[in-house]
Amino acid sequence: xxxxxxxxxxxxxxxxxxxxxxxxxxxxxxxxxxxxxxxxxxxxxxxxxxxxxxxxxxxxxxxxxxxxxxxxxxxxxxxxxxxxxxxxxxxxxxxxxxxxxxxxxxxxxxxxxxxxxxxxxxxxxxxxxxxxxxxxxxxxxxxxxxxxxxxxxxxxxxxxxxxxxxxxxxxxxxxxxxxxxxxxxxxxxxxxxxxxxxxxxxxxxxxxxxxxxxxxxxxxxxxxxxxxxxxxxxxxxxxxxxxxxxxxxxxxxxxxxxxxxxxxxxxxxxxxxxxxxxxxxxxxxxxxxxxxxxxxxxxxxxxxxxxxxxxxxxxxxxxxxxxxxxxxxxxxxxxxxxxxxxxxxxxxxxxxxxxxxxxxxxxxxxxxxxxxxxxxxxxxxxxxxxxxxxxxxxxxxxxxxxxxxxxxxxxxxxxxxxxxxxxxxxxxxxxxxxxxxxxxxxxxxxxxxxxxxx
Amino acid sequence: xxxxxxxxxxxxxxxxxxxxxxxxxxxxxxxxxxxxxxxxxxxxxxxxxxxxxxxxxxxxxxxxxxxxxxxxxxxxxxxxxxxxxxxxxxxxxxxxxxxxxxxxxxxxxxxxxxxxxxxxxxxxxxxxxxxxxxxxxxxxxxxxxxxxxxxxxxxxxxxxxxxxxxxxxxxxxxxxxxxxxxxxxxxxxxxxxxxxxxxxxxxxxxxxxxxxxxxxxxxxxxxxxxxxxxxxxxxxxxxxxxxxxxxxxxxxxxxxxxxxxxxxxxxxxxxxxxxxxxxxxxxxxxxxxxxxxxxxxxxxxxxxxxxxxxxxxxxxxxxxxxxxxxxxxxxxxxxxxxxxxxxxxxxxxxxxxxxxxxxxxxxxxxxxxxxxxxxxxxxxxxxxxxxxxxxxxxxxxxxxxxxxxxxxxxxxxxxxxxxxxxxxxxxxxxxxxxxxxxxxxxxxxxxxxxxxxx
Lengths: 454, 454
Hints:
- The first copy, chain A, is an alpha/beta fold.
- In chain A, 41% of the residues lie in helices and 17% in strands.
- In chain A, α16 (392-401) links the parallel β18 and β19 (407-412).
- In chain A, 59% of the residues are buried.
């Protein structure tokens, strides 16, 4: 995979003359992304493009080429791959669609492509792929514009949507591998590379079909002891599984069996498309949870009940707070207030102000030996008039003092987004759009701890 | 309920001298909210507050009072209620906590409150409530600041969180009733009022416990024939149900039984806290779905598969597109492209430009007699450079021509929020944060159509 992720010389075969937005010019995108290596455009009808000399064929390039990126009509692909083999190129990305994702002709072409890989020792990524992203070296083969950010997140997918829609799927991508139809390089090779890459702390995977199942599972079992692997396996429905065949030529396999096997291997398996971004930010920023006991600090009893329900669904439970914790909060609250967990601190807030009440309650539960993690419910008030209802300073102070237990949060009110950013800027409190997600996030931190303790 | 929602004279008992942010002064909030009726503050230690004459007791007010709003310590509440009865006031809101939500003393006090309501013919809302919001007359009893907007959404809840967090829960509230502990007025009375209110088109309910179950269900069965009723029933877990008792003194009842009975009555029952806002905007803006056949237009095959899975979970299915529809799109696509449903139009976009490809595909599926609803997947591009990837104009034009089938959407990429707003500003396409939610939204439009056809 090194030739794909950190090439020094790259030949681009099938580059168009058009540049600028709307041209989806892969070479222009690669340069803009900051690739510092040598680029060799190959096009028999041009002498130069974007200021670089163009070559009629790959054989004409006299300097070493680690990687060929091929975006030409499918009829030409096999011939070009043979040229690459002849020119001593050992790695190629086939960008085009029209293979196992298309029709019988395409399936036959892809079979031949696999044979070239096997026979000639060339590694092929794709076809039907945006290729790779490496934000650490500034290299990408994506023809779609993508955002740059050095984050220790490795992504493996079977669709360019996850390169372009990185924000929805995983916040962002440090390194990404789109295996596309997977004619040669598959999930196994990609996971091996990102799993063993010290710059990558989390591996996020979108999976339509899993080939080399056993081999992949054995590898995953080993990788999860080092870093979390999160998988969104699609194709749960019969029609969805059939659609996977036509999208990436993938056999979706039995969904429930694959899911169970992945879980068994210690992989975090998602239920729906919104969860990947939540999983990634949770694992990136919060400490693991050493037990299953959760304290809830809330401005609202109703929210406490919804969290209680969600914890039950995700195998966690409400902590039985120690008397010391309850006493601390009860000193701030009216005498009639029944204090348990969820800890409804609104009356304490009314009497003592939000900052003081929140800080004392949070400090007490984080110090409580019966508590393993905390969910905070608070208001996102309009500022500046109601800035005093923003408890982010209190959270920052207390989680700074006591950083060992995970704290998730949910905000309501007129301004949850801005105040949520303030919460997250502490680096120790992550905010989620629903109580459900704030509860689920703790459960994956619990799961990770169990795996590491095995 | 009229005295609560549209009073002309209101006595406010237990108003503090403090004003401004942080004082949570109910009277100040009421005036700021725009209430045009008569307000009578009652406080024996003041002669005036906020420019209005204060009265030592309610008996001193010589003009008619429709509604008393009581926010005093619990020890004084029963005496004040008796004063109100003596002064001929027939409706009261008890704001304070400390009753069935608190301890044995509180429970006894609340029982006595119920007795006063029964014996003296006074209607009581609460205790433990923010009271009401009526955006149509500019009246509220909430001591928390809330946003003003005239929307035909009626909310019934058991917690102030839904007044303050209206955005998270239901976008906004036209009229709201917080029944709190429900000592007298409960879900039945509130649903009867909002259900029969011609200004309200959707009733959204947060429910911890349901008293008068049979009566409520019979009423709901009748109301859902006129307008949708959406309920988030909490207390699914044993601990959550126990917490409901301590939060609002509610008996959560058997969760599964209540849920099944509500569904049987035609109510839309939610699974988690994020869904209410989605349900409300869907029902407010989109037409009902006359069958279960969905067409998916997508820039990404992977997204199509995830939608296919979600449709299966929500009892919908992929439409078998008519040959005419497929032909229309295939004229825009490369020859090898297998075109089915999901309709992957990315190759067509590359050849024809996003606007043209999207408009032709959407027009074709909306005209297709085998299609009942549509899910659109598109990119939220950076503007102005990539503005040509924004297909909102195409969506506006086509849904304007063909407005009879519901269209939901999901966006990915660097700028989904801004482009999402452009989609929604068409008034005919609603955007959701996940593919799951965009699929679920169609299923509730399908459910509504079935109920109206019964």
